[in-house]
From TrEMBL:
The keyword Membrane appears for this protein: yes
Transmembrane segments: 20-43
GO terms of molecular function: transmembrane transporter activity
Origin species: Pseudogulbenkiania subflava DSM 22618
Keywords for the protein's UniProt record, in alphabetical order: Membrane, Transmembrane, Transmembrane helix
Domain Major facilitator superfamily (MFS) profile residue range list: 1-48
Name this protein carries in UniProt: MFS transporter, putative metabolite:H+ symporter
Length: 59
């Protein structure tokens, strides 16, 4: 996903900047970070204090 974002990010900024200005670019960044945070919250597994074997079993 990081590589896809690295490919799409500059293109989206180039499209959004002329239309919505700097505020639109910051809104895009905020939306991406919010989406990532919600995804980790819903799908992430807490691994603190777990062994590697325990982590592989948790998935």
């Amino acid at each position: 996903m990081g590589r896809v974002g690295a490919l799409l990010g500059p293109s989206l900024v180039g499209l959004i900047l002329p239309l919505w200005g700097q505020g639109g670019v910051f809104l895009l960044g905020t939306a991406c970070f919010t989406l990532a945070a919600v995804t980790v919250y819903l799908l992430g597994v807490e691994t603190r204090g777990m062994t590697l074997e325990g982590v592989s079993e948790a998935h």
